[in-house]
Amino acid sequence: MQILEKMFDVEIAFMASKEKDSAILAEAFHTEVVVHEPTSVPYAGDWRGLAGVAELMHLMSDTFSTFEVENLTCSGPPASMHVSCTLRMVSRKTGISVSQPFAQLLRFQEGLLIEATPFYFDTDEIKAALEVPPVAEVLATEAL
């Protein structure tokens, strides 16, 4: 759990910093880190290296005003750790909140994250929360 707490602390410090210097991430992320985001989220793809992870965090921060982890549990050794939690996100664009189960496979090397593969419970719900409905749909809903 200590290795996860360190990783989350570094992520929070990075997000709170004004410079968003990827060097901050080096305290918990391996220089050859790769994060495999699924194709069904707006920040899809393989994000490689400290600069790639920094870019991913920028994009996620631009997408969500809130990104909280609740009820975190983990199992397995750092070589292949399984993490689960409830993930709560609030869309910056719509203000819609999404709360759902979330899991990740994490690999650490020498105490640093080298690979992460996240699994979102319902990416359709996430995408819907990020989309602003067409004006006609909003007007029709308000008329009811």
Reading side by side through the largest sheet, how are the strands ordered? 2-1-6-5-4-3
Query: Largest sheet, described in full?
Result: 6 strands, mixed
Supply the number of helical segments: 4
The total count of strands amounts to 6
Mean pLDDT, nearest integer?
88
Tell me the overall shape: globular
Helix and strand composition category: alpha+beta
- The domain tally reads 1
The amount of beta strand, in percent, is: 35-45%
Quickly give the CATH architecture.
Roll
Order of helices and strands: HEEHEEEEHH
Model regions low in confidence, pLDDT < 50 over at least 5 residues = none
| CATH fold-level label | Nuclear Transport Factor 2, Chain: A
Give the class-level CATH name.
Alpha Beta
Distance between the termini: 50 Å
Radius of gyration, in angstroms, nearest whole number: 17 Å
Helix content: 25-40%
